[in-house]
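Internal ticket - ligand job 85, zinc ion:
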Amino acid sequence: MLDSDSSIGALRHEMQHLRDDQAAGWLGYQGHMSDPRAAYEMEERAYTVEIEYAESIGDYESADILRHSLEEERSHYLGDPHGGA
Ligand SMILES: [Zn+2]
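stdout (structure tokens):
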């Protein structure tokens, strides 16, 4: 039950990437990766879809985990905002 719910969320995440890729003219993942900010924004959109889905089914624990994962993506692509560098 939990497994299939989180699979649906992950599927929606990937579907959002496909929609973004389509909107960008099928640049492909490599095309997005050349710009860290664009890559992060792509992840942000996909995670938002996943978080909203988790909350819609009352799975707030997964939503929190996903928010934390999105923060890690932000650090990865844009650097740590608290790092001071
Ligand atoms: Zn992603």
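Auto-summary: The chain has four helices and no strands. Residues 2-23 form the longest helix (22 residues).
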